[in-house]
Structures are given as structure tokens and as C-alpha cells.
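Convert to structure. Protein one:
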Amino acid sequence: MKKLILTTTLALAIALGATAQTATNTTQDLDARYATNMLKPGTKAPDFTLKTHDGKDIKLNSYAGKYVVLDFWASWCPDCRKDIPAMKALYDEFRDQNVAFIGISFDTDKDAWVRTFWDKYQMNWTQVSELKKWKKETFIDRLYHIDWIPAMYLIDPSGKIILGTVEIEKLKAKLEEMGNRINPPEPFTMTMPEYPGGQQAMMEYLARTLTFTTNQKKCRLK
């Protein structure tokens, strides 16, 4: 009986370990499986012009000088909807740190698209779409080699791609890794103290009170 219990326990442990390993490998291999055709880091991000739901033109090149996250998705895509809370969290964290977010949808139904990003999920960053069939009529997927959604790009202020991935956790890690490069600290500036009578009075006071050597007199304050 003890031998049977031991054998069963061992088999269960092996099965659980194999399941966990498979799940880990699946997570680790998502880019290897679905992002192999995406544009590589260092590539110049192709410019594009796409429209918002109310007809406003959005041009990538107008974001020069900012980091840009391109988020490719669709309202009919379950994995995309699953990632929306995480993308909202990234937007809330980085929107004030010189990072712009652009959602690029492959929806064809305008009403469904707007209901999803605005009414249901409040995706408050810029949203654009061709409102055409993905891979059949759209051009943005060919421009950015999008074979799978959700897919994301991170672009630097000079317009070069930093990261292309289908895993939002990798995007999050990259943004956090970059830290001060995204939002550099304010430069330190030194302010001279005020002196009664203004700067001229201060200079005259220093000239009267400071003692200079012969060599230093050549550059003494005037």
C-alpha cells in the first residue's frame, strides 16, 4: 500500500512539474512563436497617418521627441481585451513621463470599436483604425509586420524601434528599465543670493573686502 501511495505521489509530482514547465515555456516562447516577423530594434519606425473615430488625422512623425507605444489590438480579440487593464496601468504610470500611447485597432465595425475603447474600458489614450479587414484590406499590419494581436512597439524620440513584442509584461519591463532615460531629472540650477543694493553693490563689496595676490589681481572682480 505504501509503495502504491509513493508511486502515485511521484507520478503526480512529475505531472505537475511538467505542466508548470509547459506553462512557463509557453509564456517565454510567445515572442519566438508570434513576433518573429516584427520589425527589429534599431529599425526606423515607418511613418503613418490614421484617423480617430471622429475623423482626426494622427501622424506618427508628429510625436517626434517623445517615446511612443503602439498598441495593436481589436475589440473582437479575447487576448487583446485581457491585456487592456495592464495597458491602462502602463498608460496611467507613464503618460506624464514623455511617453505617448497610440492604440491601433483592426476593427471593421466602428460602433463596436468605440463602445469597447470608450464606453466599456475607458482607454483614454489616442485610438485610431482603418476600419478595414485585417490582412486583407489594411496597410498598417504590412507596414509593421503584425501577424498576431495583441502586439506592441516601443519607439524612441528619434523614431527608432526599441522593442517589438506580443507580451505586455516585456513592454512594462522595458519602460521600467529605462527609468530616467524616459523622464530625466530636472537640471540643477544655482540661484545667486540677493544682496541689498543689487548685484552692483555686491560686486563693490567683494572688491573692497577680498584680498588678492598679484596674479589674482589680473582677474579680480570689477
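Protein two, convert as well:
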Amino acid sequence: MIASLVEPYGALIVTAVIAILFVAFAREWRSPEVSAAVAVSVLLLLKIVSVDDVLGVMSNSAPITIAAMFVISASLVRTGALEAFARWVTAGAKLHPFRTFLLFLIAIAVMSAFMNNTPLVMLMIPVAVAMAREMEVSASKLLIPVSFAAILGGTMTLIGTSTNILVDSVAQRAGMAPFHIFEIAPLGLVVAVAGIIVMVLCRGLLPDRTTVSSLMSPEQSKKFVLEAVIEDNSPHVGKQARDVAAFNRADRQLIDVLRATFSLRRHLNDVVLQPGDVVVLRTSVAELLSMKEEGDLNVPESDHMQALGARSSSVVEVLITPTAGILGKTLRHLRLRRRYGVYPIALHRRGTNLADRLETAPLEVGDTLLMEGASEDMQRLVEDYDLLNVSQPSERGFRRGRAPIAIAVLIAVVFGAAMGLMEIAGLAVIGAATVLVARCVEVDEAVQAVDWRILGLIVAMLAIGVGMENVGLVETIVGAIAPHLALLSPLFALGVVYILSSALTEVVTNNAVAVIVTPVAIGLATSLGVDPRPFVVAVMFAASASFLTPIGYQTNTLVYSAGGYKFFDFVKIGAVMNVVVFIVSMVMIPMIWPF
């Protein structure tokens, strides 16, 4: 019944669903994978796609390949395979800043060609912050280049980014021959070189923003937290905590009041002190913390407090990663003080301090939290929830002895794909299984390393792609635009496809663009009587070339808050990057893949 009613309007309905979905992506009504899942649900209800269609998508090789590459990339991180490089660039930043900066970008681009961009950028953010400190420049001078170099490097091989794998999968479904792992390398190499030259020559377009991480050296961030109980005879009893002079000296700051183990921090301005309350003070004056032999503290008697203890604490900046275990949760719900003994100080999102929503804002990818606590407590929090300490490189215990195995597995996967021994999906699965068996990465770490949000989005978008096929939407779109482009050169049509893909990528997720635009590009090329391969390559590169905004590509989102950037900081240098990559692509694509 529903199918018969919907059938005459199928193409129109799917167009409307995709349009609304893209608006949802751009306006961020919900996370991309949730919005895409809702769109698939609508198509299921309207019988435009069947349950078998959706289940059939699960057999697509792209999500499997991407998940396996996430695991292999995690093995490189967990074994410390890149640790020596991080130490080298940090050490060389002070002596040879320009040369080190250039080699840093080149190395990121090369590494990004063979491992997932997101974990690589997460690993390099604290390295860039440490480099900036050594070079005595703002971290904002380095973090955008880190993201851009990873994006550029991802275009050099088929496994360099999930977008490449996804476009190849969609093209194969349309009947095209699969891409070789290094088929796009000549174009990707030229694009990467051109992009790095732009970043070096246009360094003046990079902003000089101040971040907590760039301001504070590890020594400067060190403070002490003192806990003291209010005694029965204390004159502070009955007073508002904020009004007590002893808590508001130059060498002390009140950060919390504990009553029966419950934190009153959210209502600190209204707290009236009672006997037994524990006040938590921040101080950097070591003399205040002179210890008795048994480990207690000497607090001046005039303060009428009995010291319970003190511990060294640090103020650090923590980045919410795509695989963080606290995504979507609030600080109020997490109760980090009770669980870890750390205190959230500020929450930054896209250049904005969410001071009034510190406790209630659901945490999102790219948010940065300013936290205070003992270094061991902070490290435990970071490890438990897979967060990123922006202030310094990871202190996790590396399995260094297994690093050669992780590197060998990656080389074997690349070599096997280059020699055509097996499809990339099969090689990637074997590689992932090998690093798990060799314990380069533990099973729970591997599960945490996979960005399930991206995989969910890809599966949902592939199902929407099936819906486009079922209603003939691709043919309808091609039939509408092909007559107008037939009078022009194939190069002009190629430019239109590239610009459309690039523009959409800046406002919606690149994987969604890949699934929607690739079949249209293939259909357009076929109707024009030319080889569709150059058009598919144009989509592949344009969907990855997201430099203009901080929301078009996940690595841009990660460095957005970490670098203290404003939205238009990306626009200034990103516009130049987009133009250069477009020109290089339009010149090189027809040379490598003739029409």
C-alpha cells in the first residue's frame, strides 16, 4: 500500500530526505550518524529501501576496511612506533625551528598516507604544542598546519583516508574497476607538495592565538591543592564560604567545599560553612605546605582549620576525542572530583568559553576541558576515557618491544595491496588480527580505537545511496544537468563536479558527500561519453580537501579548540589552500586519467 503511493514520487521524496539531512548536518541538530540513521529509518518506513537493502549494505567492504585500519593505526600508537619522531621534532624545534617545522609537516603527510588521519593528528597535537613552546610561538601557528598536512597526506594512497576507501567502494558498486592502492599517488604527491609550500609561504595568515597550553610550561602549571576541615569552634562557621578572607588571599583560592563527601562546587557562592565541612584550596606557595613528619600539614592557627592533607596538582588542557568515553555526557553526570579527584575549571567549544554551562553542556568531539588535579589522577582519567592531554605528549606505557611487529604489519598490508595479492579489505582484516594476536594492541583498546560513529555514518549513507538507486534519482539528476554540460568541455564538467563536492564537504561530512556525489559523477561522465574515472578521482580529492571551515573534516574540528582558533582563522588560509588544490587537480587529473 505505502509502496504504491510513494512510487510516483520516489525521486522527489529521496531528494527531500537528502536535502533535510544535509541541513541537519550543517545545523548540527544531532550528531551526523544519528541524523543519517533517522533518514534511513524514513526511507525504510516509506518502503523506498527494504530491510534486505540495509542488511546488504553491511557486507560492503568499506566499513570493514576502515575499522581494520583503525586497529592497525592504534597498534602503531600503542607500541610507541612514532615516539622517536615526536622526541626528535620537539628537541630540534628550538635549534632549527624552520627546518623542523617543514620536516614535521612532511613527516605527518607521509604517515597520514598509510594510517588514519584522526589518531595521527591526536598524537601530533601535544607534540605541536611542545614544539611551539620550544620555538616560543603560539601553538595556533602549528596546529592548523598539522591538520592540513594530515588531510593532504591522506590523498596519496587509497588507504590514506576513509573517504578514498568509500569512494572506491561506491565506484565498484557502479561497475568500475577498483582503484590500485597507489593509483592516486602521483596526483596526491603533487597536491601534498603544493599544499605544504602554501603553508610555509603563507605562515603570516596563521593566527597568533593564546591558549592555556602554550602559556604554561609543565613547571608553571604546577600548583598544590590543600584540604582542611572546619572545626567546631572555628569563627568561619555560619559564614558564606566566599566571604571568608582566609580563603581569598593572594596565595590561596577556594575551589570547592565538601560536605559528607558531596561537592558543593556548583553552588559555591551560596554555601554557608558548617562544622565538619572540608574546604579545598588551591595554592602555589610551597611554604604553606611544609609537612610534619607524619605527613600532615601546618596551617596557621589563625585560620581555625585542621589540615587533612595536600597534594601536588597541575592545570592541564584535555581534548575530547572522537572515541572518548564521555561523549554526550555532562560534567555533572560524570562527577570527576569524586571518581578521580580532578576539578573541571573551564569548557571551551569552538572558540567559546561555556562558563555558564560548564556542568550541564553535553560534551562533544573537539571540546577542550581545563582541568586541575594530581598528575597521576589526571593520567588515570585520560586513559580511562581515551582523552587527549593537549599540554604534553602521552605518558601511557608503550609496548615498545612490539613496535617492529606493528610497523611490519602495516608494511605487509601496503605491499600486499600493491602487489595485488588480495583485496585491501582482506589484507586489512588479516593485519588487524595479527596486531591483536601479537598484543601490539589489546582487544579493549582496539574496540575503543575504532571510531564507531564514522562507521555508523558510512553504513547509513550507503543505505541512502541504495535508496537513490531504487528510485532512479541519479539518472534523474544526470538527465537534468547533462544537456547543459554537453555543450561544454569535459574539463569544465570535471570542475563543476569538483567544486560541488568541495563546497558540500565544507558544510557536511565528507563521507556523506562521497556517497551522494560519486554515483552522480559517474552517471554524468557516462552521459557525456567520457571515462568516469577522472570524475571519481575529482570527488575523492574534493571530498578530502576540506580546508575552509573547522567543521568539514574531523581533524580540523580537533585542532579548532585546541589551538584557540576563531572560525575565520580557517577561512583565511583555507581559501588559499582550496584554490591551489583545485588548480593542481584540474591540471593533473586529465593528464593522469585522460577523458
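The CA atoms of residues 288 and 300 lie 9 Å apart. The longest helix spans residues 567-592.
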